[in-house]
Each structure stands twice: as structure tokens, then as C-alpha cells.
Specification:
Largest sheet: 2 strands, antiparallel
Number of domains: 1
Helix content: over 70%
Strand order of the largest sheet: 1-2
Strand content: 5-15%
Oligomer: single chain
Number of helices: 5
Distance between the termini: 36 Å
Structural class: mainly alpha
Order of helices and strands: HHEEHHH
Length: 117
């Protein structure tokens, strides 16, 4: 239940950021915003897992091979992050040109951090 609440909170945040998308594009954007909200929450969960468990994990395939490898959480994070960024850029491209950069910074905490330093 907490996950659904987090996704809904993120969706509301995105809807506010992208509220100036023209009405004719709005229905197209709803599913993009839902996907972005879902991915944002999942990316935060993955970050937490990586912080707790580290970036490297051990493995043992049962056939005498064992060792260390990049963690599954890191692999998933690496695959999901570009998708999230692309969805945000797609949403931003539907905004009036003077609002695109602000929207991207608002939706991406790292971009916001880097531009305020």
C-alpha cells in the first residue's frame, strides 16, 4: 500500500510540473506520467537496496563456480534510468519551449542538484 501511495504522490508531483501541456496532448501524457511516477518510485527503491547491500554481490551457481558480480539491483537500475530520463524528456518536449528546462530540472533531482550548486 505504501508503494501505491508513493507512486500516486510522484504522479501528482509530475502532473503539477507538466500542468501546462496543451489539452490536446494531455491525454497522451497521462500514461507517460504514470510510467514516470512508477519508475521514479522503483528507482528510489533500487537506490535504497544498493545503499544497503552494495553494488557487488556474491554468487554460487552450484557447479563449483562462485565469485562476485555486479548486483542485480545495479543492473536493473542501469536499465531503468535511461527509460525514465527518456520519458521525462518526452514529456518536456510537449511543453511550451520556455518551460522545458525548468520541468526537466524539477522532475530530475540530480539535475536540480547540479544546477543549484
Amino acid at each position: 500500500m505504501a508503494e501505491k501511495t508513493a507512486i500516486l504522490t510522484e504522479l501528482k508531483k509530475l502532473q503539477k510540473i507538466f500542468e501546462n501541456i496543451s489539452p490536446d496532448k494531455r491525454s497522451l501524457c497521462e500514461s507517460l506520467m504514470q510510467n514516470a511516477a512508477y519508475m521514479a518510485v522503483k528507482l528510489k527503491e533500487l537506490q535504497k537496496l544498493i545503499d544497503e547491500d552494495g553494488m557487488i554481490e556474491g554468487y554460487d551457481n552450484g557447479g563449483g563456480q562462485s565469485g562476485r558480480k555486479i548486483s542485480s539491483a545495479v543492473q536493473i537500475y542501469q536499465k531503468m534510468l535511461p527509460s525514465y530520463n527518456q520519458v521525462i524528456k518526452t514529456l518536456a518536449s510537449m511543453l511550451p519551449s520556455n518551460e522545458k528546462e525548468v520541468a526537466i530540472r524539477s522532475a530530475d533531482p540530480m539535475a536540480e542538484f547540479l544546477t543549484t550548486r
